[in-house]
Amino acid sequence: MGTREIGLPQRVPGTGLPARVTIWEVGPRDGLQNEKAIVPVAVKLEFLDRLAEAGLTTLEATSFVSPKWVPQLADAEELLAGLNKREGVRYPVLVPNERGLKRALEAGCPDIAIFGSATETFAQRNLNSGLEKQFEMFEPVLAGANGLNVRAYLSMCFGDPWEGPVPAEQVVRVGKRLLELGCTQLSLGDTIGVATVGQVEGLLAAFADAGVPADKLAVHFHDTYGQALANTVAALRCGVSTVDSSAGGLGGCPYAESATGNLATEDLLWTLEGLGIEHGVDLDALVKTSAWMAEQLGRPSPSRVVRALAG
Amino acid sequence: MGTREIGLPQRVPGTGLPARVTIWEVGPRDGLQNEKAIVPVAVKLEFLDRLAEAGLTTLEATSFVSPKWVPQLADAEELLAGLNKREGVRYPVLVPNERGLKRALEAGCPDIAIFGSATETFAQRNLNSGLEKQFEMFEPVLAGANGLNVRAYLSMCFGDPWEGPVPAEQVVRVGKRLLELGCTQLSLGDTIGVATVGQVEGLLAAFADAGVPADKLAVHFHDTYGQALANTVAALRCGVSTVDSSAGGLGGCPYAESATGNLATEDLLWTLEGLGIEHGVDLDALVKTSAWMAEQLGRPSPSRVVRALAG
Questions:
Q1: Distance (Å, whole) CA A139 – CA A218
Q2: What range(s) does the Pyruvate carboxyltransferase domain occupy (chains A, B) (predicted)?
Q3: ipTM value of the model?
Q4: Which of A25, A164, A165, B255 is the most buried (most CB within 10 A)?
């Protein structure tokens, strides 16, 4: 048709937005652990290297959770041993408990993440713990990780499949406790993807009121109800400048009835590009990488940008 | 798993947003004209009736464009003759030109929409006209439609596949001209889905600066790059309170490399519900309708909300 290739959006800066956003790429961990397929370690290593090559500087590489629960990431040691660690790139790993921390430290990881819950029921069911009891589990991890970067994921910050809506005060209380225990960053997760923009602004205002600065916070949206990008923009307006996303929207399946993937990194990049917010990533290289990974998984990418540009 | 059904998001109102939004449902027209399948008229009639039953009050029913160009809507007369018109529901139809207007008037439609272009190339290629010349085409239509509601679609308001970025001043100039010709509402279309939130705010500010009140404007986003909902929220913040969307995201295909569907009405409703903005639609009934229509089309709905709730 002779149409002109539009590879990037027009730049029209917004007001009151951060000048630079750090993308915390969770595709290799949160994405792949939610895919049906078990991806060979060689493919994961190529994936991680291509993500770094595209300019992403924070790559959550894997998880030291029990292989019984997450067989998709059972190869954590092998993966880390084979990793081509690049200058200027962080490769944090998820550790669920002390045993996970031990494995991470033995593998030479200076950058870890723990996984907490904002609700009682999820803490019981997913962490085999409780809303208060989880801190006992994290204390020795944080003691052992003294001096490391320790991100805390806080799950179910907006809605919980058993409890329904989650009060902002409860999320702030649990989040502050994790920061007091020594966590260096909180990632506020909408694990089931139900949040809308007013709720996001409300929770971030509650954190600000409680004296937690926005630079201690990251946001982590799943696109289950199509709200992930709108919610992310709302968070940027509130001063948050670390955003979790997964390349190609990994972890969601376009065929599945319920698509529960993370916000796609490419769809986020399109917004950041348009707003003139610095991000350091080569969109074209990332789209090619996600299209390649979709081939490995044998299904199209749920990222709209990948589908629009990779054709 | 005994999880609690979350059918609606938590209500947390935002600030500076309209109290009520009118959804201009374009699924039966813009949606179906972009589907490969030609849907039988009986199915379309059931679809329209179910949309009205769900509470939608503005249903763009069909188009009087030449069947040669849009065979999907070749049954416009038959459809309108069979329509179960409900009290309080508007059934606007698209008319491309005088001949289309004549067909619409003969079919008893008091509510029409014309289809203009914000760019020279699209006006030439799609309207067989030109950026200035299009007004000559619309003048007799508007004269003939004296006293009717006449919405003007303005295509390519943010980016054009041939020309690239579209200057806001150009869009405002063409838009004002259409209002001066007698159009009662302008629907600003991101036909290729490239816009981001800053650009949306910029264009709406330019219309405000030119003296066009927000209540003369509607927004019409396609989700090609995943930006439709974030852009819609940006428009709501600018005071726009009429939003175009298509039930189930009709017109986009989850399998296609390039998904060019409209914003899904259900994904919009999720946001409006969460923000406590009045809309008058029963989400559950709409989800069931879109799931049914997806079955008719033989493919899953691209709406995330439909996929999450219809399972």
A1: 22
A2: 21-287
A3: 0.95
A4: A25
The per-residue pLDDT for range B59-101, each reduced to its tens digit, is 999 999 989 989 999 999 999 999 999 999 999 999 999 999 9
Q: In the prediction, which pLDDT does B146 show?
A: 85
Task: Write down the CATH superfamily of domain A22-309.
Answer: Aldolase class I (3.20.20.70)
CA distance B294 to chain A (A): 12
Residues 195-254 of B with CB under 8 A from A: 195-199, 201-202, 223-227, 229-230, 232-234, 254
Residues B274, B236: contact at Cβ < 8 Å?
A: no
Contacts B21 to A, Cβ<8 Å: none
Question: Which tokens go with A248?
Answer: 């190609």
**pLDDT per residue over B168-208, tens digit each?**
999 999 999 999 999 999 999 999 999 999 999 999 999 99
Q: Nearest Cβ partner of A304 from B223, B270, B307?
A: B223
Are A207 and A195 within 8 A, CB to CB? no
Give CA–CA dist A28/A52, Å, rounded: 12
Cβ atoms of B37 and B297 within 8 Å: the answer is yes
Q: What part of B 140-159 touches A (C-beta under 8 Å)?
A: 158-159
